[in-house]
Amino acid sequence: MSTPFTDEMTVRRHQMVRDQIANRGVRDFRVLEVMRRIPRHEFVAEPYRSQAYGDRPLPIGGGQTISQPYMVAVMTEALSVGRGDRVLDVGSGSGYQTAVLASLAELVVAVEQDPSLVKDAHATLQRVGITNVLMRAGDGSVGAPEHQPFDAILVAAGAPSIPKPLLAQLKDGGRLVVPVGSLSSQRLVIIRRNGDRYVERSGCGCVFVPLVGQHGWEDFGSKMT
Ligand code: SAH
Questions:
Q1: Distance, CA 1 to ligand 1 centroid (Å)?
Q2: CATH says 55-223 is which class?
């Protein structure tokens, strides 16, 4: 039985997908369907729940944010995730983007540098019934060497340049999406691996929190020791 509260959230979620995502040009029906289904409001803290379907990022603690819904959709579409895919999600934060990817893929390996976010995201994913995720606390700028290679890799934090280990951990035909630029603004870079060649194209402008760690902005706001 759904409560009036969840029904209200379902209505808002459908409006979010129509107005902010489909109307702005995201066409992949699987991405639209998954984002209509996943309860984004479960991934934000109580005081922000009423804003969960707004057109913006929201605070999730530790100075980090859950990405704007449109950006989640654009990045997911760019990765063309298929049912049998193994996906790496770098900077999994609240776990919302992880949930979207896990609903399209076989398995998602999620790496987040802030251990308290890992704990909360793990609990949220269990609550919403998503089980095909391996969550790890650590530096995702080096990828996840023990779980590679990946069909798709998503980085949800702004990098100064493309982290080299992520290129090496792509399967042949694999895709990578990563925001690259300065600390204050970036552009999405979308890469496809063809054998030893990497075909790169440029996506929309964006503003993400900084990628920290070995291949990020060294020590900028890092929880890592
Ligand atoms: N996809 C998340 C977005 C979170 S914001 C969501 O939908 O909620 C980006 C996240 O990247 C932050 O939680 C930050 O702690 C994390 N991050 C930054 N650098 C990282 C690194 N090197 N390895 C793992 N996580 C990192």
A1: 34
A2: alpha beta
